[in-house]
Design goal:
Layout (H helix, E strand, L loop, with lengths): L12 E7 L9 E7 L5 E5 L2 E7 L7 E6 L9 E3 L9 E5 L2 E7 L6 E7 L9 E7 L5 E5 L2 E7 L10 E8 L2 E2 L3 E7 L5 E5 L2 E7 L2 E2 L2 E2 L3 E6 L6 E2 L13 E5 L2 E7 L6 E6 L21 E5 L7 E7 L4
């Protein structure tokens, strides 16, 4: 008897590809030993490209790998005694690498830690006043670390506002709501030519699931300006942003399938037409980071969790 359905096994491997200036995406390759139910995070730190992700097992711990040449990945290692139910966030500022994550399960607190080598991490700390049901984001802007996140979920309420806090010499500022921005998923942030950019999908309310990706910019992380939205960019999840080669780059999972889409913005008004590398498929949000290998040119790296086999 022919079965009435075909069962697909989830591909929980983490994949990467890279593209040089004006070039096509290289063939996708898996990161050895890296599997996750969620998307990974990327950061360029001390001549290495680091990747962080949530564990595939019920420990919900955070795991890492790194590459110095963009091709060969180090054996994986983990951060013990912490847990998350979402994609973690990474950001390098000066000689310090920052990690932030939502708590595991129903814990909607945001935790953070620092490292000077990407291997040994300080004890986790709480970002006071912050609550999220999604992954937070980190970005270095004007010499300070900024955290941006979407609000929390409760039994009868869904806070889809976006919030920002900056870390100065005296600690984190109080969370500030970003007016006019609402999202069902995490935002994406990047800096291009001294301007902070933020991209997010719309909010989800009864009878309206707004999946259009919107772009904003700010010169001071306080006042925000709506910018030209990427054409035909729709997603149910968080997009990814990165600065590379004088342009702002955006990647997102299709709102109607598993394809990953990509476009680039000149920082003014012009987006390039979206393209989709046919072989790249994901069930989660992608990640982007610029990285210059120890030998080679500066390239844009894309990472994602697989879809189905």
């Amino acid at each position: 008897m022919t079965p009435s359905f075909v069962r697909h096994n989830a591909d929980t491997r983490l994949w990467t590809s890279s593209a040089a200036q004006g070039g096509a995406w290289a063939e996708q390759v898996p990161v050895p030993g890296a599997t996750s139910p969620e998307a990974p995070a990327l950061a360029d730190f001390q001549h290495e490209l680091l990747m962080a992700w949530r564990a595939q097992d019920d420990t919900n711990s955070i795991w890492f790998s790194s590459t110095s040449d963009g091709h060969t990945w180090a054996p994986v290692w983990n951060l013990p005694y912490v847990g998350t139910s979402e994609q973690p966030a990474l950001c390098a500022l000066n000689d310090t690498l920052y990690l932030a994550w939502k708590g595991a399960g129903h814990d909607q607190n945001i935790y953070w830690s620092t490292s000077t080598d990407g291997r040994k991490w300080e004890d986790q700390q709480l970002l006071a006043g912050a609550e999220t049901s999604r992954s937070p984001r980190l970005v270095a802007f004007r010499g300070a670390l900024h955290a941006i996140w979407r609000g929390g979920e409760h039994l009868l309420t869904s806070d889809q506002n976006l919030y920002l806090a900056a870390r100065g010499q005296t600690g984190w500022s109080a969370p500030m709501s970003l007016p006019g921005m609402g999202s069902h998923a995490s935002p994406a942030v990047a800096v291009l030519r001294d301007t902070l950019y933020l991209a997010h999908r719309g909010a989800k309310v009864p009878l309206d699931d707004d999946k259009l990706i919107r772009l904003w910019s700010s010169a001071n992380a306080v006042s925000w300006t709506s910018r030209a939205n990427p054409p035909n960019a729709f997603t149910g999840l968080a997009p990814a942003l990165a600065d590379h080669d004088g342009r702002l780059h955006l990647a997102w999972k299709s709102a109607s399938g598993t394809e990953i889409w990509y476009s680039a913005f000149d920082g003014d008004t012009t987006w390039q037409p979206p393209t989709s590398p046919a072989a790249f498929e994901t069930a989660c949000a992608p990640a982007l980071s610029a990285f210059r290998p120890t030998t080679g040119t500066n390239e844009l790296y894309l990472a994602w969790r697989g879809s189905t086999l």
